[in-house]
């Protein structure tokens, strides 16, 4: 098992360039991939409904369990999203936030600084695991910002520039 170190978070609504930026950062540091997409792919492969637009409670449980395990064993410096994102998804669906999220030790797990990729119509595209309409992404963005600020995180907005420039921005900041 690795010694635990706090992770930096890159978050934002779907289709904002988070994963593309993280893939560039992987060339210089260890990064944790987005667990949500892995869960969605597995659910689709097995004809199950644990997705943000389906059974969001199942989705939240699956993502929480997989992320918790990965956080314990990963030496990653940066995470593609965090467990707090689940709270934002649940809030916009008017679902109760489960105790395992409400009581999660966010401040002990993640750095206080969060990098936020804003919604960006020019780069947004749907795919097989990103079915949300752009308007939904705007609602989720507001919920994400509110959740992070309410938990005491300092949100640093990523500029709407190329993934390479974004990755350099993050590396200089860190």
Automatic annotation (TrEMBL):
Keywords: ATP-binding, Nucleotide-binding. The keyword Nucleotide-binding applies. The keyword ATP-binding applies. This is ATP-binding protein. Residues 7-162 form the NadR/Ttd14 AAA domain. It comes from Formosa sediminum. GO terms for molecular function: ATP binding. InterPro entries: NadR/Ttd14_AAA_dom (IPR038727), P-loop_NTPase (IPR027417). SUPFAM superfamilies: P-loop containing nucleoside triphosphate hydrolases.
